[in-house]
Amino acid sequence: MAFDREHPHSFAARLNADLRDAPPQRVLEAAWAVYGDKLALVSSFGAESAVLLHIAAQITRKIPVLFLDTGMLFGQTLDYRRQLAERLGLTDVRDLRPKFADLALKDPASNLWKTSTDACCDIRKVRPLDEALGGFEAWITGRKRFHGGDRLHLPVVEEAGSQVKFNPLANWSKAELDAYAAKHELPAHPLVANGFPSIGCWPCTKPVEAGADVRAGRWQGQEKTECGIHVARAPGRETSMGEGI
Ligand code: SF4
To answer: Which residue in the list 120, 201, 204, 227 is annotated as catalytic?
Structure first.
């Protein structure tokens, strides 16, 4: 495929036209073929993360996996991150943490989430990811259309500021995810069995009733539905996190 990587907008549109009906494996293979070591995968090691990580590991185990360790995650998520990375043989999982200076200045008591979840997500998620993505030309997310909200019309490939973003699972249903996980005997995040279909930081994640929207337990009672890593925040850069994060 001959693409002009210098122009992310037209490049992403052409990639999307080629890949919009492709299975996730082919999307990831194409992303790796085009970008190689300029490609990163962003994972929350949450409820549905094992599928995308497993598909990626079949292509290359050395893909950089960016994991936002916000300092507010469930202990089960940290355990799962270690165990799943080891099981899949991933060799380059990077733990991204908030800057000490940001925490000292804006959240010294670790309770900013009580007064401003947007500000808290900014220093604990958006800024660390923004900085880590600086060395890459493209990144992969685990977002899916069936999660609803802003994700209903998610393209498989999209422009993200000066970068290109791949959403290989955009087309997949929950049943397809579950079937893939069962076929490959992928371990589930331990909190899924406790009623958490989507898992983020402990202060902002609640269990939900069976049949409720997947993301209904995230930032319950607020209008907020995304952390900000998928929202443009500055010219030439996009950030906010998906199941994403
Ligand atoms: Fe803070 Fe909640 Fe955002 Fe986590 S999800 S960074 S605790 S506001």
So the answer is: 227
Number of domains in the chain: 1
Query: Taking 70 as the threshold, does the pLDDT of residue 237 lie above it?
Result: no
- pLDDT of 211 reads 77
Task: Please indicate, yes or no, if residue 114 is contained in any of the structural domains.
Answer: yes
Using the atom order of ligand 1, give the atom closest to the CA of residue 227. Answer: 3
The pTM of the full predicted model, rounded to 2 decimals, is 0.89
| CB of 121 sitting under 6 A from ligand 1 | yes
SS3 label, residue 145:
helix
Structure tokens at 219: 């930032």
**Does residue 123 register a pLDDT over 60?**
yes
Distance CA 242, CA 225 (A): 10
Higher pLDDT, 239 or 103: 103
In a domain, 237, yes or no: no
pLDDT score, position 231: 65
Please report whether residue 213 resides in a domain.
no
Q: Helix 24-35 crosses helix 49-59 at what angle (to 10 degrees)?
A: 50
The CATH code of the domain that includes 34 is: 3.40.50.620
Using DSSP's 3-state secondary structure scheme, residue 229 falls into coil
In DSSP terms, 160 is beta-bridged to 163
The CB density around residue 14, as the number of other CB atoms within 10 Å, is: 16
| Best residue among 74, 117, 123 to mutate for probing ligand 1, ranked by most atoms within 8 Å of CB | 117
To the query of whether residue 120 is one of the catalytic residues in this protein, the response is no
